[in-house]
Design brief:
Blueprint (H helix, E strand, L loop, with lengths): L7 H25 L15 H17 L3 H20 L6 H4 L2 H16 L6 H10 L3 H11 L1
Helix pairs in contact: 1-2, 1-5, 2-3, 3-5
Length: 146
Amino acid sequence: MHRLAPAREHVIGLYRIVIGFLFACHGAKTLFGVLGAKTAAAVGAWPGWWAAVIQLVCGVLVCVGLGTRVAAVLGSGSMAFAYFTVHLPAGLLPIQNGGEAATLFCWALLAIAFVGPGRFALSNLRARQRTSTPAHDRVRANELAS
């Protein structure tokens, strides 16, 4: 076993939290006109307002680790859509067309979708509650097995 293996799930969890938080901030900036935005997107405007809603909701879900894989895939897809429809027409490379954030979010979220939530995820608490069996049930099961 590699000596860094015990830290793997912690690092994945911290990575998920940071990416989710930044993605949620990206959506909040556009949606509410905060965090350095000049104005908020017009409510219901396609695609900006809808993209911001996806970014905010998926970012929060990824950050807290609830429905992580689905939220990460949706967020990744929205960033791929943004890159190909908004940025690519302005130039081939992200550095030329201003699509660095879209590219990084797309790939970071896709990685989270494949790797999973890691530690510190709310879904881990729910999974633990479902798999934990009360002590009296374990004793009874052991008696029946004897």
